Amino acid sequence: MSGPGPGTDPTGPTGPGRPTGPERPVVEDAGDFAGVPDDTDRLWTPHRMAYIGGENKPVDPHDGDQCPFCTAPRRSDEDALIVHRGEVAYVVLNLYPYNSGHLLVCPYRHVADYTELDDAEVREVAELTRTAMRVIREVSGPAGFNLGMNQGPVAGAGIAAHLHQHVVPRWMGDANFLPIVGHTKAIPILLADTRRLYADAWP
Questions:
Q1: With 0-12 CB in 10 A as exposed, 13-18 as middle and 19+ as buried, what is 178?
Q2: Which structural domain range is residue 71 located in?
Q3: Half-sphere exposure of residue 52, counting CA atoms within 13 Å on the CB side?
Q4: What are the helix (H) ranges across 81-154?
Q5: C or N terminus of the chain, fewer CB within 10 Å?
Q6: Could you tell me if residue 81 is inside a domain?
Q7: Which positions are annotated as active-site residues?
Q8: Backbone φ/ψ region at 173: left (φ over 0), alpha (ψ -120 to 50), beta
Q9: How far apart are CA 3 and CA 108, in angstroms?
């Protein structure tokens, strides 16, 4: 049996044996091939679009009713991903974690700058940070931590109006090719499960 003749494309979307070239160019719609296996592995992370698009960021950063760090303590621990509630500060999982177990230590009071904290807030934020490190070590066994506050949008603060201390566990090789080349982070455990494990281990 003979195959298609010259000037035809046996596989294109125009159908077997339909003319190509100047008479009928073949244009493949990439949307038709979504999910079709090829030689490239893909890790789909559509949930990241919420962060990229600015979801959950307050329109007015100074409005406590819009601030997610002000409204979180009014919700249940499970719903808000709160690990521990202190007297003047609390510990919550980062909704968009850099690594599994990424915690935030936040004062309840809506203040932006570290110098605005009163003595009780400074003490409790520091104590909760130390306890968070101990709990994460016990549950997750990281090799190290990044601790820090991004003060102001220019320093990378996503919600600059409400101060929060980052506690990020680190493992050897966690900065592999995925985030460096693909700008994608693989998080192997659900936030709800992480919250439960850390809350159960909190002294």
A1: middle
A2: 51-201
A3: 7
A4: 119-140
A5: N
A6: yes
A7: 164
A8: left
A9: 74
Extract the tokens encoding 87.
């007297």
- Residues paired with 91 in a beta bridge: 84, 105
The CATH number linked to 137 is 3.30.428.10
- Rounded (to 5) percent helix, strand, coil in the chain: 30, 15, 55
In order along its 203 residues, the chain shows pLDDT tens digits of 444 444 444 444 444 444 455 566 666 555 565 566 666 666 666 655 655 555 566 677 677 688 999 999 999 999 999 999 999 999 999 998 989 999 999 999 999 999 999 999 999 999 999 999 999 999 999 999 999 999 998 998 888 999 999 999 999 988 776 666 667 777 888 999 999 999 999 99
Global confidence as pTM: 0.70
**Two tokens, residue 156:** 């990378």
Residue listed under structure tokens 């090799």: 143
